[in-house]
Design brief:
This is Pentatricopeptide repeat-containing protein. This protein is an all-alpha fold and 291 residues long. The chain has a domain of 87 residues. It has 16 helices and no strands.
Amino acid sequence: YIVVKELYIRIRERYDKISLSVCNHTIWLLGKAKKWWAALEVYENLLDKGPQPNNLSHELVMSHFKFLLSAAKRRGFWKWCVKLLNKMEEKGLKPGSNEWNTVLIACSKASETSAAVQIFRRMVENGVKPTIISYGALLSALEKGKLYDEAIRVWDHMLKVGVKPNVYNYTIMASIYTAQGNFSRVDAIIKEMVTSGIEITTVTYNAIISSSARNGMSSAAYEWFHRMKVQNIDPDEVTYQMLIEALANDGKPRLAYELYLRAQNEGLVLALKAYDAILKSAKTHGATIDV
């Protein structure tokens, strides 16, 4: 790639004109060598000095941007994702739904609620139709920001425009309604999932149990744990971890310890945090447990 870049620079310096095919080939080779920013420089030269880029030029640079966006998202660099998106628009490239969704997901994973909302709005303003992935990322961001009413409005709008929820969307909404203490709506969500033929898994129940635990509703968390068992859905480490900590923090160390032993009997390995919570609760409330 060093040779290619040097040849490109020399041609630019020595000749008034350069072939577009040479420029496109340079962009392609630099991308293949994972020198995406160098490839972008060549594209910027096309815009500033000519010749005018063609469809192939756009496609090559878009593929590089897509790779950079995906890499930034995987590493949790949400700000880089936003900058890359801005750069694309600055250079006259139109991000598609995949690019917008990549940035949305990055913002959501980083719990950057306001950034996610802003990206979603820009997406709509640019005439890009949000997908089920777009709505899922936005709902997740709103939940993390505890903007539950806004999330419900987004959910209602999503249903109104005919976007069918998937298991991820339903799970987020179950968690949100749980946080609000609106268990009638949680029940309705579960029924809708069954009616829609969507399999209810451990992940959905964990979301409800975790949301109950985070909001100081250990009794509700315990009830949903039993409902989970009745439905023959196996709890995992996350289920027990959240439930044990919730019960211990709510002054129920014996019950928490019973669940700890049950998890061990089921071959699950829990983090020390759960055991520490039991010991702390037992000491605080003067409870005796056989440790």
